[in-house]
Amino acid sequence: MNTKAAYVKSQRQDRDHHCHWPGCEKQVPPAMWGCRAHWFKLPKELRDDIWRAYRPGQEKDMRPSRQYLEVADKVQRWIHENHPPQRAAEQPRGLFD
Ligand SMILES: [Zn+2]
Questions:
Q1: Ligand 1 mean position to 37 CA, how many Å?
Q2: What's the domain count of the chain?
Q3: pLDDT-based confidence at 97, cuts 50/70/90?
Q4: How much distance in Å is there from the Cα of 25 to the middle of ligand 1?
Q5: Domain membership flag for residue 57
Q6: Residue 94 lies inside a defined structural domain of this protein
Q7: For the chain, what percent of residues have pLDDT higher than 70?
Q8: Stretch 22-28: mean pLDDT, rounded?
Q9: Is the residue at 97 inside a domain?
Q10: More confident residue, 78 or 90
Q11: pLDDT value for 46
Q12: C-alpha dihedral, 25 to 30 to 33 to 36, nearest 10°
């Protein structure tokens, strides 16, 4: 395990911060991109890109690199193209009746 991964795994939920998957409200430590389920929905290249661009501590000083922001954007575009949000019309009827 590399030290970056060890750092992220050691981080706790110390403030309100949720998964970056659109619509996911799951709380994850600020050092993590998102919840486990959604993280592993991303293709490995994107996960690798995030790892490379991530700088330990950026979630504390709130100064992610430009590179990280670009990767984060790319991830959002990928999600939008590959997992578009379900439209209301596609939701099963009567689910919450
Ligand atoms: Zn999530």
A1: 6
A2: 1
A3: low
A4: 7
A5: yes
A6: no
A7: 88
A8: 96
A9: no
A10: 78
A11: 98
A12: -60
Distance between Cα 10 and ligand 1 center (Å)? 19
Q: How close is the Cα of 3 to the center of ligand 1, in Å?
A: 24
From the CA of 22, how far away is ligand 1's center (Å)? 8
Q: Residue count of the chain, please give it.
A: 97
In this structure, the dihedral spanned by the alpha carbons of residues 31, 7, 79 and 71, taken in order and rounded to 10 degrees, is: 90
pLDDT at 43: 98
Centroid of ligand 1 to alpha carbon of 83 (angstroms) = 13
Residue 44 lies in a domain: yes
Ligand 1 geometric centre to CA of 89 (Å): 23
pLDDT at residue 95 greater than cutoff 80: no
Q: How far is the CA of 45 from the centre of ligand 1 (A)?
A: 18
C-alpha closest to that of 47 among 59, 60, 33: 33
By the 10 Å C-beta count (0-12 exposed, 13-18 middle, 19+ buried), 46 is classed as middle
53: domain range?
A: 9-84
Mean pLDDT (the chain, rounded): 91
Query: What separation in Å is there between the alpha carbon of 38 and the centre of ligand 1?
Result: 5
